[in-house]
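hey m, so remember when u said the tokens were messed up on ur end? i reran from scratch. heres the input so u can diff it against urs
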Amino acid sequence: MDREKIKALITLLDDPNDEIFASVEDALLKEPVEIVPELEKAWESSLDDLFQSRVENIIHSIQLKDIYFQLKNWVQTPTRDLLYGAYLVCKYQFPDVSLIHLKEQLSELRKDIWLEMNEHLTSLEKVRIVNHVMFDVHKFSRNTSRYLAPENNYISEVLETHKGNPLSVSVIYSILCRELGMPVYGVNLPKNFLLAFIDESAMSDNEQIKDQSAVLFYINPINKGAVLGRKEIEYFIKQQKLQLKEEYFLPCDNLTIIKRMLNNLSFGYDSKGEEGKRVEIQRILTLFDDLKENPI
């Protein structure tokens, strides 16, 4: 990055000539996200409304481009780490969100759970401890007053407020369990999102699970971690008048989870009338088109 060149271009952003501005804007948009601090510094030192508006739009476009390509790389990476995927989603609304800070917040929760654990506990007993720490001690719950709010899908916000939707709370729950050696994976159930505690002996080398018998039990994080069996899920599906599909009882992969998170965001921004953001999220969702989604 040629810092002097960037500074020179930024000084031309208040040029009244539309052709000059278009040329400058095009040049800046080709630069990496690292130029954003220079743009922010220029915004802070100016009182010109037109200049500030142009800088704001350019910063947003550069950051959006960066998120798009980072998520593209995540989608194309075989491992598709769940925390990193959720972090990239956060960066759409909160570009300065810190992955290190997210890990520190999760580490504090994990430590509280770990202190209650011992190697002699059964799977159900371990889940009861996770439930106690998350829902009794730290008071994680559904954001009932603002259920459709886009913020419910950003785990950075959920870790701060301890309020979210079924998906975001489940993502945090699953990440904590996996870091503690508990095989807990997401289940992409429509109109809700559950978790499945898996019998590790039934897992293949690539962690694929295609048989529902590998699921020891289900967990409903949004209901304080209530433990469920297949019959309860079948009843929910019937109650919601959904078609019974075997995929509703099997763990899904991280690609499916992040895609659903983005779809939730699109719907949330649409419900708020923020058409521009809805369109931007829909463009990001094109990264997931034509990709085969495999179970874990």
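this time it looks ok to me. The two ends are 41 Å apart (CA to CA). if urs says something different then somethings off w ur setup not the seq
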